[in-house]
Every structure is written in C-alpha cells, then in structure tokens.
Amino acid sequence: MNKEQQLHKEFIRLCKSFNKELCIIPVLYGSLGLGKATKMDFSPKDIDILVPFVYLYEQWIVLKKLMERLGYSLIDYREHEFSDGYNQVGFSYIEDLETFAEVDYRGLEKVLEDGAEYYVLSLDDYLNVYTKSSADGYRRSKNHGKDLKKMEVIRKIKGENQ
C-alpha cells in the first residue's frame, strides 16, 4: 500500500467516527482529495479535512477529544493540526470554501465509501481553490509552486474531457 492509499484508508477510518460520533459529513480536501478527483497521485503528505465552522471554534474541544480518542495529539493549535506519530491531519472549515474560493459547499458531491460518508470537490472547485491560494503569498512560498502544477494538471484534464 503506497502513502496515498494509506492516507485515504486513515481518512475513511476518521470519517466513520466523525459521521457516527459527531454527525459530521466532512470534506476530503487538499492533495489527497484532488488525487481522488483526478485519479492521480499528488504525493500527499497529510490528510486535509474540512468540517463545519462550529467544530473549530465553539465545539473545538469535542473535535479535539475525538481525535485524541482516535490516537492523535494536537501539534499546532493555530493550524488545527494533529499527529499520531505517522499521519498528520489538518482541519479547516467548510464554510471557508465559499468566502475564500467562491465554491458553494452546499452543492458538493457526497460519497459513500466503506461505510463512511464524505464530500468531495469537483475539478472546477479545485481550480477555484488553487487559483485563489496561488495568489496568497504565504501559501505560494510554502508550497513551492505545487499549486500552480496542480492547476496545470486540472486544466489539462478538463481540456481532455471537454
């Protein structure tokens, strides 16, 4: 099992707990989510998950305790990042899709996989996200042009499918 497959398997495990214990249907995001959308390996290093805003603020302790029960420790409060010593999981909030990248999060495709329910972004949604994030100086320098490469791949796929 490669790293991407292992991360996806771990996402499904976490997702089942979010579904059952918090009644959250999260969004699979970042390189792992884009990999699922394109059926390509973008060499994800972590699991990016979007949850409702309330779980990063008013209900933060509930999410944190669940992650701890699942074997994770908080490693960066500001970035909402956890680690279990092998996997790293970062959280942001679903509603930011709309304000940040003009993506209607209420219209995302829902996936049911191995008993886990989650949402995925379309290629157009990812293009909006990466276009916006590539304009952000911090993210642009942090990701060494990876976002621009992802945008090129998405545009190529969309061109092939049109």
Question: How would you describe this structure in keywords?
Answer:
162 residues; alpha+beta; five-stranded mixed beta sheet; two-stranded antiparallel sheet; globular
Instruction: Give the proportion of residues in helices.
Output: 40-55%
Largest sheet: 5 strands, mixed
Figure out the total of helices: 7
Let me know the number of strands.
7
Spatial sequence of strands, sheet with the most strands: 1-2-5-4-3
Radius of gyration: 15 Å
**Strand content of the residues, in percent?**
15-25%
Average the pLDDT over all residues and give the rounded result.
91
Strand/helix succession: HEHEHEEEHEEHHH
Q: What is the approximate shape?
A: globular
N-to-C CA distance? 33 Å
Structural class: alpha+beta
Q: Uncertain spans, ≥5 residues at pLDDT below 50? A: none
Overview of this protein structure:
The chain has seven helices and seven strands. It has 162 residues and is an alpha+beta fold. The strands form two sheets. A five-stranded mixed beta sheet has the order 1-2-5-4-3. The chain has a two-stranded antiparallel ribbon with strand order 6-7. The longest helix has 20 residues, at 3-22. The mean pLDDT is 91.
Give the topology.
Blueprint: H1 3-22, E1 27-29, H2 30-38, E2 47-51, H3 60-69, E3 73-76, E4 81-83, E5 88-93, H4 96-101, E6 109-113, E7 116-120, H5 123-134, H6 137-142, H7 146-161
Helix pairs in contact: 1-3, 5-7
